[in-house]
Amino acid sequence: MPVYLFNASLDSFLVVVIIGIGYLLKCNTDAVQRKIFISCLIMTLLAITCDFIHHMLAGQGGQTRQTALYIVNTLYYVFQVGMMYAMVVFLDYLSYKNMKRLKIIIITAAAINLVHIAALLLNLRWGFYFFFTNRNEFMYGGKYFIRLLISYLPFILNIVDLLLSYKNVSVYHINLIFIILILSSAGSTISFIANNTPLFWICSASCLLALHLFIMHTEAQFDVLTGAGNRRLFYEFIDKLNKQSGEQAWSIAMLAIDGFRSINSAYGHTEGDNALRNVADTIKGCIRDSDLVVRLGTTPLSPIQRKPSMMFLFISKNSYATRKTRSGEAGSVE
User: Fold this and answer.
1) What is the pLDDT of residue 196?
2) CATH number at residue 255
3) For the segment 75-96, what is each residue's pLDDT rounded down to a tens digit?
């Protein structure tokens, strides 16, 4: 096995491990996001491992070695496609945060992956995806393009869907998906032409790093406790509205929890935190995709200084307020 192939595989493996450790050490309140991203990392590590074993065994004769190569490469393609689909599911969840939509996408991806696994098992008999020569050299089969189509079709469909619903998805999400598609496509093209899969894993590790950076950027805009936007997101949102043209009307409502401090005093800060989460979830469950809920507070929530803010801002296109107010007056919101 050439040294540069070994280094490329090892470097990609270590980058994915470091991303995983960094992600696991973060305080993340979104359990769904956590499960999807960890699944994507595990699939990537397993695929890199199988690919590494393939390069260690390839090029040397022997029936036993050839049997092992077929098994390892079949598992490699299962894990690789699993990684690609997990990445698509993760991107879609980040864009929409819709559990009903997420379940449909997961079921669809699982069904397609089962068909792909069945095709890989048939390939062991007929070799239409890949096969090995008597010297155990890897060769592409005549129907290999079908496997590439299965791998990248979800990305293409995801991009089309985002473009059709661009008004409900931020430009940052769309740019991220294009970056990941370009990186993964470049890696697959190089891998196919040069028969050099470790270069694909360098591009894949770059995709995962881009996702990790996106998560860090997104979480910097949201309150860890409630999942509502924070002051930083509020200022960015207002700045975005100021730059937009047109006469679109927006309303801002400030909501406070009555008797919140008595909850902390009577039941403790844990129940106070639960009350804040419940209120935030209730508000988020009543708004539209174009609206924004922000939790304000001059004092950040921390283990040392527990003075949680009970103030929420609700920003809505086409006012939900029950009456218009003059500048400086409090409005009545139901």
Assistant:
1) 60
2) 3.30.70.270
3) 999 998 899 889 888 888 877 7
Question: 22 in a domain, yes or no?
Answer: yes
Question: Which amino acid is located at 218 in the chain?
Answer: T
Among 186, 219, 252, residue at a domain's last position: 219
- Domain count for the chain, please give it: 2
Strand partners, 130: 140
Q: Angle at Cα 111 formed by Cα 185 and Cα 89, nearest 5°? A: 50
Average pLDDT over residues 51-55: 87
On the 0-12 / 13-18 / 19+ scale of CB atoms within 10 A, 224 is middle
pTM: 0.70
Residue showing tokens 């540069």: 4
- Single-letter code of the amino acid located at 34: R
Report yes or no: 112 and 152 within 8 Å, Cβ to Cβ.
no
In whole angstroms, give the CA distance from residue 256 to residue 314. Answer: 11
Same structural domain for residues 30 and 129? yes
| 195 and 219 Cβ atoms separated by less than 8 Å | no
Tokens representing 48 are 């890199």
Residues in the chain: 334
C-beta separation of 225 from 277 below 8 A? yes
Whether the CB-CB separation of 44 and 9 falls below 8 Å is answered with no
Domain with 260, as residue range(s), is 231-317
197-217 burial code (b ≥16 CB/10 A, e <16): bbbbbbbbbbbbeebbebbee
Instruction: Flag whether 63 is in a domain.
Output: yes
Determine the Cα–Cα distance for residues 232 and 169; give it in Å rounded to an integer.
19
What average pLDDT does the segment 38-47 reach?
92
Q: How far is CA 136 from CA 70, 76, 78, in A?
A: 10, 17, 21
Average pLDDT for the chain = 76
Q: Distance between CA atoms of 184 and 179, rounded to whole angstroms?
A: 9
Cβ distance 225 to 308 under 8 Å? yes
DSSP class of 306 = -
> Which 3 state secondary structure label does DSSP give 223?
coil
Task: Quote the Cα angle for 284-287-292, to 5°.
Answer: 75
Residue 106 lies in a domain: yes
